[in-house]
Request: fold
Amino acid sequence: MKTSSVQKQTNQIPSTEGLPIRYDIYSPEGVQSPLPVILFLHGFKGFKDWGTFPEICKQIATKGFAVIAMNFSLNGIGENKMEFDRLDLFSRETLSQDLEDVGTVIKAIKSKAIEIGETSKIGILGHSRGGQTAAAAAAEYADIDCLVTWSAVADYNARWSEKMLHDWQTKGVTEIKNGRTGQIMPMKKMVHEDALRNAERVIALNRVDELEIPALFVHGEEDEAVNPKNAEQLYNACSSQEKDLLLVSDAGHTYGGSHPFQSDELPKPLNRALAKTTQWFEAYLK
Reply:
């Protein structure tokens, strides 16, 4: 895989609450700035160092982009970049704070508090819940010039289960099991209340009709976690004149990726999603 010409920098900036937003910058060596920047957003129970994400960012960077992969400030990952050791933060990770974190990173790029040299346009790529936040952010922040979502949730308020709603009503907290680690992860009622109260701002399906920038919606046809109809909903509701929908055959929620990822090659479905994504960014950010 062509990744040897990419350099990586790691740093953090404070969120609006003063918590660290940790990020990695992947940039091509020997390429003259200004570079287009792409923000990469992880999903629910995800993090910037999950599985195939670093390799995805590296490969996008080889095409002449600076890729900033960020951890949301409340995602539950603390000093140990691979472990959910801050469940107190995870329990109150709201869609509103995720959206604020994206805005904080954009401001830091523009003010050069995040040091990546001269920049040109900004694109955003998000997976799953990160895809839904990317869509909302693309409508919220005028500095974003191009959007790509992978496996995005269209309407998070349609995903809460009856058990979750009952738990929040009776106990004020529900518990989610992390299938990979076995951890029991709490989610407080405030997460649900925020999504309801701020639905017009934070829910992707409520924002994509505001978009005038190029928007690509990618989804696996065999997605076991988020139905592909979510991508169709977002595509149909999107107002952009430059939009596209890619349903990837034989692809699940992570397009064949897993954590830890130890293969020398990305899975074929993931390569198809990545190829279309890089073509989209090359067409609209350069």
